[in-house]
Specification:
Shape: globular
Low-confidence stretches: none
Distance between the termini: 45 Å
CATH architecture: 3-Layer(aba) Sandwich
Number of domains: 1
Number of helices: 7
Strand content: 5-15%
CATH class: Alpha Beta
Structural class: alpha/beta
CATH superfamily: NAD(P)-binding Rossmann-like Domain
Order of helices and strands: EHEHEHEHEHEHHE
Number of strands: 7
Radius of gyration: 17 Å
Mean pLDDT: 93
Helix content: 40-55%
CATH topology: Rossmann fold
């Protein structure tokens, strides 16, 4: 019962699910946040609890409902009575061309990618401070220069990057705040043609997609990593950002 507790937002699928499995195998207890992926999160909870009973709890919340996040934080803390780590992984991602983007899309993308992490950190920082905890924000290599036809998303991720660096100062020395900026890890849900995929791979010096497990290993390092490491955003992109390329 003394093992550390981590909250992972958007934990039911893809990178969130892989981080959950890896951290659970490393001995963490988990609170898995989800919004609508009931079947996936229940299956993941059952899978992990079958190997270590009562080690994984779930919390449902629409992160765009910002006024409800303090109550969500209370539910999170009620699961195990402590919190050692927070991974802000939940994210909306879809194209928003300038000519057709809407205020609703702006609100959705800014809420899930930047505002929700801010207000969750606000609500959970007292508990994290008690444990000398760690926060990891999932940023994006396109946060700085933008991704073509995804500027609202890129702007939101840029805000998250600013939040990461700013809170590293504000929350020191008791809470470390770092980020991970993935490159191409898993193909997006909307279909890409074979030619589009090849164009992406051609921009990656490593010549391949990254793996969700590599994100999970980086998250584990940052959670348990050097006590002097804070305010950093690790680009896990196969060298792509070092070439200055910003379009997929």
């Amino acid at each position: 019962m003394s093992s550390p507790v981590v909250l992972i937002t958007g934990a039911a699928k893809r990178i969130g699910a892989q981080m959950s499995r890896h951290l659970h195998q490393s001995g963490y207890r988990l609170v898995l946040h989800y919004h609508s992926s009931d079947t996936a999160v229940l299956a993941l909870q059952q899978e992990l609890n079958s190997t270590r009973p009562h080690s994984v709890a779930i919390v449902r919340q629409d992160l765009t409902q910002l006024e409800q996040l303090p109550a969500m934080a209370d539910r999170v803390l009620g699961c195990f009575g402590r919190l050692d780590g927070l991974i802000n992984n939940a994210s909306s991602f879809y194209p928003t061309p300038l000519a057709s983007s809407t205020p609703a899309q702006w609100q959705d993308l800014m809420s899930t990618n930047a505002a929700a992490p801010y207000f969750l950190i606000q609500a959970l920082s007292p508990a994290l401070r008690q444990q000398n905890g760690a926060i990891i924000n999932m940023v994006d290599i396109h946060a700085e220069k933008g991704l073509q036809h995804h500027l609202l998303y890129s702007m939101a991720k840029n805000a998250l990057a600013t939040l990461t660096r700013g809170l590293a100062t504000e929350l020191a020395p008791h809470i470390r705040v770092n980020g991970i900026a993935p490159g191409a890890i898993i193909w997006p849900a909307h279909e890409l043609t074979a030619e589009q995929k090849q164009q992406v791979l051609a921009t990656i010096p490593m010549g391949r997609l990254g793996q969700a497990q590599e994100i999970a290993e980086t998250a584990a390092f940052l959670l348990a990593g050097p006590a002097y490491l804070t305010g950093q955003i690790i680009a896990l992109d196969g060298g792509r950002s070092s070439r200055g390329l910003s379009e997929a």
